[in-house]
Amino acid sequence: MKQDYFSANNIKYIDYKDVEILKKFLNPNGKIVSHKRTSVTSKNQRALASAVKRARFLGLLPFVVK
Questions:
Q1: Could you say which protein family the record assigns here (predicted)?
Q2: pLDDT per residue over 23-45, tens digit each?
Q3: Closest CA to 40 of 54, 29, 52, 58
Q4: Shortest CA distance to 38 belongs to which of 64, 1, 66?
């Protein structure tokens, strides 16, 4: 079983300004990938989702990639 990306890299806080890390958890269309595919814990998945949504709202990430 794969380890959680954030605990493996000792990331305590998922920051919405860290766009490069957030892009790893988006599929080519810009959707958030499920925790079953990324093996991120439920707690970190919720934090990841809110960070992605906040980054989208501020224009750091696109809502849809065409």
A1: Belongs to the bacterial ribosomal protein bS18 family.
A2: 999 999 999 999 999 999 999 99
A3: 52
A4: 1
